[in-house]
Amino acid sequence: MTLPAKNSPKERDIALLAAIAAGDRHALEELYLSYHRRLARFLSRFTPRYENVEEIINDTFMVVWQNAKEFRNASQVSTWIIGIAYRTALKSFRRQKNHAATGSLEDYPEQTVDPTFDAEVHDWLKHGLSRLPIEQRLTLELAYHMGHSLEEIAIITECPVGTVKARMFHAREKLRQYLPTLSGGPPEMPARLG
Amino acid sequence: MTHHHRTEKSAEHQEVSALIPWYVNETIDEAERQRVENHVAVCAECRADLSVQQRIFEGIDAEPALDYMPVASLKRLQTRLDALQSAPALAPPPEQQSDGRMPWRGWMAASIAAMAVAVALLAVDGWVRFEARLTQPNYRTVTNSSPRPQGEVIRAVFSPTITLVELQSILDEAQLKIVSGPTEAGVYSLASKSTLPVRSSLALLRRHPAVRFAEGTLPEPEAVNPQ
Questions:
Q1: pTM score, two decimals?
Q2: ipTM of model over 0.85
Q3: CB distance B66–A121 less than 8 Å?
Q4: How far apart are the C-alpha atoms of B203 and B214, rounded to whole Å?
């Protein structure tokens, strides 16, 4: 294991988390501000409502505050925090799904884009992503939006590497079916794809 | 081609296919990267998949993202932490609960102590509330009695989803700068950074839909009425 350079973000995170474990509220505030943008950008891909984004971030940092002493350097601090955010978000999204009238992820506001009227790749992609089961989409977004490695995603999601690969495989398969324009085929209506 | 050869080829195909997303996001090591490139060079299916995954990756990466104002959110977290930290004050520490000697005496003592503390706190709280009722009006304002930051001329509330760029643009246009805030209620104290009259800054602020509230804090008529 290579030691991080002096004052590197990793070293700073570890120092802040140690201070938080000792009850330092200022350290928590500093860590919060340094992660807020990254988490907000990630979470806002799943919900356009800032109240939901803020609730997940604040719930995450409540856990960080209460469990900083449990951190054992088994992973990077960033992976640990994103793992907490992942589980908090997953609970929140499942709760929203249960409360939705139809109980479908298709009710997420992101899918209000109607590809009938706009066949731009961007809209197809957005619509296709919104139709993925939440675990598959989170895995894909952790890789493609957050840029995490396979092993990091396994730690974040607390799943074996094989499960991460399987989720990514199924996500890719569904997107491939759903996004014919990306693979060079003619655009088709999503309804025809079943 | 033998069955054994086909099976080997199929296994290699599946393993490399599973690596493609992490080849695309550039988080695999050099040996795996080379393995993917070698396979993709001879496998049309993986080549096509790689192209699709690259377009998905670029599509996700290219999506515009909003920037949020974290300070107001942090204030709300701090309020929750304050509540959390004050809540367990009456709970006995764990070691008192595991005292094996005459546990009823420990519980009794703890209960009496807790009740005494609770009664004392209720009495103090009641007195404080009583005093507060005597001295405070029965309404809340977005301002408070704390000293105003030096130079403050305007108090404003912005949309919670305003981006940093938008906020800075609005403030630049109105020739204002933040001197403090936001408060728990999301109120910013703003000061002028030019000779532009306060009433002109107010008028510019109020033009923006992202500005929920803007009022002058100085008694000049022009600060209150932008007309």
A1: 0.58
A2: no
A3: no
A4: 9
